[in-house]
Amino acid sequence: MERADGVLGDEHEGDDRRLFKMALEASSNGIVLTDATRDDNPIIYVNPAFEAITGYGEDEVLGRNCRFLQGDDSDQPALGELRDAMREGRECRVVVRNYRKDGTPFYNELHLAPVRDREGRLTNYVGVQNDVTECRDAQEARVRVSAEYEEIIRILPNVVFRWKMGEDGEMYPSYVEGALAEQFGVTTERIAGKRLEEVFPPEFLGTVRPAYERAFAGETVEFSSRIGDRSFANVAMPFEPEGRTPTKEIVGYVTEVTGREKAEEALRKSKERYEVAIRGSNDGIWDWDLTTGEVYLSPRWKEMLGYGDHELESGVEAWRGRIHPEDLERVMSALQEYLDGRTEHYELEHRLLHRDGSYRWILTRGASLRDGSGAPNRMSGSHTDVTGRKELEEQLKHRAFHDGLTGLPNRALFMERLEHALERAGGKDSHIAVLFLDLDGFKEVNDSLGHEAGDELLVEVARRLKQRSRPGDTVARLGGDEFIVLLEEVSGAEDAASLAERVSEGLRAPIELAGREVSVTASIGVALGDPKGVRPQDLVREADNAMYRSKRHGEGLYEVRGAGGAAPRRPAGGVGSTGGKGDPGGERPRSRRRGEQVQKPAGGCASEGPSNGRCTKCETLPEKLAGPGRLYLWLPLDHTLSKTYRHLRAGGWTVETARDYSMVVRLDDGRLTELLSALSAVLTGQESEDTRALFKPGGDELTVSDIPRAQSLTQISSLGGSGWLLDMLSEGRLTSYFQPIVRVEDPSEVFAQECLLRGVSPEGDLVPPTTIFEAAKSSRMLFQTDLAARRTAIREAVRNGVETNLFVNFTPTAVYDPAFCLRSTVEAVKKSGISPERIVFEVTETEETRDVDHLKNIASFYREKGFRVALDDVGSGYSSLNMIHRLRPDFIKLDMHLVRGVDSDPYKALVAGKVLEMARGLGVDTIVEGVETEGEFAWARENGATFAQGYLIARPASSPAGGLARA
To answer: Could you give phi then psi for residue 808, rounded to 5 degrees?
Structure first.
């Protein structure tokens, strides 16, 4: 207090001064004195009440500016008003939000007064503080309640009114609201300042005025009134405490009673809306008195857990005892942190036990009231049932990582597990293996039996894969008919091969689909990876490549690739790294089925090799399946012959058995297609593949010379739908069209003719090569079709007197069986008299040519015989830089889609120009395909292309065309 002595002045001495000090010390208001003569106006005195209000001791505040009480909350409008008053040296009263020492806010009503000396100079400020937090809270509560009442009044179908008696003895409205008031346009805003006669119509006024006068006299008046055909019930009463009269103000309400039921229904709905609002969006309400431990749980809170209002006792244990054991510690910890003031909000999700024994997910929110010391004394909140949202979240999470049809993990989850498996196995000696499966013939199931049957097949395959996998393995579906399996702790290639055989064997059992038995096989690629350094995507890619390689050699096969991409075992009959450079009989990656040797596509010979000479079977067309005749069948030894016999006899077929064949079915009416359908219902896919069959037209008996022509029943079935291709090949209705390739610098010079295969229908229409080869592949006549196509190209070139180079497309059999393709091509060229140096084979990166190493070896074989190689469709997205690097082609052909519009598209021009520039640097000639405009040809010339081809020069035609007639 001594620090503030100067403020009191010299005139305050003796008893007066002591009395003044005692008054300051005893005041319940906080008193603050500051020194206005010093910088920052520091505090020089606070009384004990200030310390009680703020929690700060005198020694903690002296010398500080009062603004520290606001902390970071310095943007309050009242503080601006306070600063203006201090700057002007005048008195002011404001309410500011300050913060106690413990951080809790409080509202401070501050009366600030300046103190001046005898000369009028400002020396000090005196601040009188009053903690009005409770008043402020009460005021805000009243505002909230008032707003709630206003909302209730607004939605009620009534009029709520308040009228005052004016000094002139007239009644004036001060408040008129409600839905009914809105209807008549007599709301407060619209009728303010109007007299009674100006508000109501005459027929209503005659009843209302006497009633209101009685109410102003002190009575509570109930009366009825009408406006037109509408009736109203009215109540008016004095609005003065203690019943003092005469009153200066009356209140009341008006309710329409026209159609009482409608009014009651509206009132019921209004009540429901109010209750819904109170319940807070269907939430359960709880209130907890922390001082007594008493807990209130609303009826809705109990209802959410399956209980009636009186079936569950309110209390802390009713809540805590139902929390899921896994959530209990987390919930109680969060609650304690909030009550201790360590967190600002109490909000979390947890599970509560329902009466039916299940758990419901609950979102709980709460807020507390605290006493003057900051200790919580009451806490209230709500419970919201979020079980539906949680279940939806789980469903969405499951869908994000699982296949919707089979329930298996999808690619994303598989890759995540593969990455974790590689991390876990990093320090072990075992390997990680990936099995990539592609179902054989799945498209045929969809096409013949429908997509619903296809989906059933996929679900069953998923079930079998899981059944055949080991515990801990991951089976996933990548999409379509592709599945993938993660195998952990695999000892080596043999172990991986054994697991692949186990999976393959599990798929072969027949599946009942749409009333038919369907047998399933899968082409499988196995990639064996060393966990050290291998990337998940590389392992999957290697398994994918191995699967495609196995599929080339037939259905139901698998191939194992070792760590680092090496092929572990390779049988003879293919091309590989162990064969001589010019030997097309080296090894290829091993693919097996049930332990058998590799099988090549039907139409070729598994025994064929360089020393066997020409294989006549590959040149022989199968018999056309038409007309009456006999179908001879040799069923596999493990098949029950009697089952097939009984099935066919029951279907009305004439069936016989004999010693040298299992059975023969007579077809007197040529119904071979129906017979094949009947057999497919009793034989599985694998049994059909293993069954040898021979169709012999007419009625002649089987001879020994007929037996070598027997084929698998599967091939016989495929041939049934490809009779047109058999006719085309047997009748020699394949031809070649020619399109010239000219030198860009002199377009009149034809450098070469590209041979383009065409078929000719009996009506003379052209059949495109894609249609021909798709039918050949499905009917297993690929070798015969391929041989006929090459011979046709060479024959037509000779017949038309082509003396330039010939560009011939590289066919699939060149990949399936390079030895056969090379030998037959050399033989045809030799007979034609054309020099091999004139023939260029065009290679396009397709499904059959994914194995670049294999393709590189094949290209080397052709070059050794004098042929040249061109890489086709560069820039299409298929022919990659890797193909150029590994294949080392003699020519590069720019894809027509890259060339089209190149003269007007800067982006295309830049890409195509870089390809031409790269080819020149490699010393490789380039051919620009699809040139259709003068601008495209000019661009090719300006950018250094060697040759050009396209409609501008000549369209494909049955006879070779010349170049452009210009220099």
So the answer is: -125, 135
Query: How many distinct helices (H) and strands (E) make up the chain?
Result: 34, 37
Residue with the larger pLDDT of the pair 446 and 245:
446
Amino acid letter for position 233: A
**Token pair of 464 as six digits:** 């079998």
SS3 882: helix
In 3-state terms, what secondary structure has residue 890?
Answer: coil
Question: 879: which DSSP letter?
Answer: B
The closest alpha carbon to 784, from 622, 959, 579, belongs to 622
CB 524 within 8 A of CB 550: yes
- Element holding 162 (H helix, E strand): strand 158-165
For position 275, what pLDDT does the model report? 59
**Dihedral angle over CA of 610, 613, 619, 625, nearest 10:** -100
**Mind giving me the DSSP string for 493-527?**
HHHHHHHHHHHHHHH-S-EEETTEEE---EEEEEE
pLDDT of 477 > 80? The answer is yes
Tell me the backbone φ, ψ of residue 515, rounded to 5 degrees.
80, 10
| Interval 805-825: pLDDT, tens | 999 987 655 555 566 677 778
Partners of 439 in the beta sheet?
Answer: 522
Nearest CA-CA partner of 63 in 38, 86, 84, 82: 38
Domains of the chain: 2-131 (3.30.450.20), 138-275 (3.30.450.20), 280-391 (3.30.450.20), 402-592 (3.30.70.270), 626-719 (3.30.70), 730-948 (3.20.20.450)
Q: What is the pLDDT of residue 396?
A: 75
Q: Which two tokens stand for residue 187?
A: 């709301």
Q: In the predicted model, what is the mean pLDDT of residues 701-730?
A: 73
Q: Is there a contact between 434 and 486 (Cβ–Cβ < 8 Å)?
A: yes
Contact 876, 911 (CB under 8 A): no
Give dist(CA 507, CA 526) in Å, integer: 16
**What's the full length of the chain, in residues?**
967
CA-angle at 763, arms to 760 and 767, nearest 5°: 30
| Residue whose entry in the numeric block shows the structure tokens 């390809």 | 915
